[in-house]
């Protein structure tokens, strides 16, 4: 149980275009979802926290107009990287928190590798 | 900011036990200690968590110091598949508030290498 599906696993886009990444909780309701970014050889950096039906809370230094987060249902959150630039190339990972299951409620997706050319 | 400190890297041999230390000297009374690991090009995977007592599951054991300012993740017989970055994490904030859900804030973790 407690599976999070993240799609796509990798994407290449042209500079200036937008990319949408989906995060779905498959077998539980995710009251809260988290979005992280990870650069090579570095740790995960939390970008934002989203609760179903409300606006996301962004961490300091993360541009909310550039990284649009939508959490329209208890099983789906999306991250849209708008007007992507090469410096946005990174590994993006979502995490979903639901009820208290075996892993105490935090389940991670498998990540999306974004390359902006 | 992460509230834990771990060695940057450790190395061990296959089929030997591995002890991964973590210091969390500012831990509060309600802080659970979480361990996750991340294999290359994957999202983090839950390993174990605990509050005060030592904990065991099929993946590992967690030994928590009596003063709770440090803990050790124990892999009893390491395999090559255990090569990963291991993160020791305290949630932020330590208790649920009206501001919202507790976050997992990752530090640098320990990169574990397993030699065949």
Describe the structure.
The complex is a heterodimer of chains A (117) and B (116). Chain A is mainly beta and 117 residues long. Helices cover 0% and strands 51% of the residues of chain A. Chain A is built from no helices and 11 strands. Chain A has strands at residues 4-7, 10-13, 19-25, 32-38, 45-51, 57-58, 67-73, 76-81, 90-97, 106-108, 112-116. In chain A, the strands form 2 sheets. In chain A, strands 2, 4, 5, 6, 9, 10 and 11 form a 7-stranded mixed sheet that branches. A 4-stranded antiparallel sheet of chain A has the order 1-3-8-7, with no helix packed on it. In chain A, a hairpin with an 8-residue loop joins strand 9 (90-97) and strand 10. The radius of gyration of chain A is 13 Å and the shape is globular. Chain B has 116 residues and is mainly beta. Chain B has strands at residues 9-13, 18-23, 33-38, 45-50, 55-56, 61-64, 70-75, 84-92, 103-104, 110-115. In chain B, the strands form 2 sheets. In chain B, strands 1, 3, 4, 8, 9 and 10 form a 6-stranded mixed sheet that branches. Chain B is globular, with a radius of gyration of 14 Å. The mean pLDDT of chain B is 91. The A-B interface holds A 4, 6, 31-32, 34, 36, 43-46, 49, 51, 57, 91, 93-95, 97, 102-104, 106-111, 113 and B 2, 32, 34, 36, 38, 41-46, 49, 85, 87, 100-101, 103-109.
Defining traits:
heterodimer; A: 117 residues; mainly beta; seven-stranded mixed beta sheet; four-stranded antiparallel beta sheet; 11 strands; 0% helix; 51% strand; B: 116 residues; six-stranded mixed beta sheet; 10 strands; globular
């Amino acid at each position: 149980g407690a599976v999070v599906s993240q799609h796509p696993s990798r994407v290449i886009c042209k500079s200036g275009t937008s990319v949408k990444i989906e995060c779905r909780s498959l077998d539980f309701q995710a009251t809260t979802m988290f979005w992280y970014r990870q650069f090579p050889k570095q740790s995960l950096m939390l970008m934002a926290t989203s609760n179903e039906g409300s606006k996301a809370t962004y961490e300091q230094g993360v541009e909310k107009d550039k990284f649009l987060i939508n959490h329209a249902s208890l099983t789906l959150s999306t991250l849209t990287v708008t007007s992507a630039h090469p410096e946005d190339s990174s590994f993006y990972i979502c995490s979903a928190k639901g009820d208290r299951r075996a892993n105490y409620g935090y389940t991670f997706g498998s990540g999306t590798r974004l390359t902006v050319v | 900011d992460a509230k834990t400190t771990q060695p940057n890297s450790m190395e061990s041999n296959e089929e030997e036990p591995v002890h991964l230390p973590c210091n969390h000297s500012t831990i509060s009374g309600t802080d659970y200690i979480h361990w996750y690991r991340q294999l290359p090009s994957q999202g983090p995977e839950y390993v174990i968590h605990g509050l005060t007592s030592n904990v065991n599951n099929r993946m590992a054991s967690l030994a928590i110091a009596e003063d709770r300012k440090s803990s050790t993740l124990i892999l009893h017989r390491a395999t090559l598949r255990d090569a990963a970055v291991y993160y020791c994490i305290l949630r932020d904030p330590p208790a649920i508030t009206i501001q919202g859900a507790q976050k997992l804030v990752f530090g640098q973790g320990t990169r574990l290498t397993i030699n065949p």
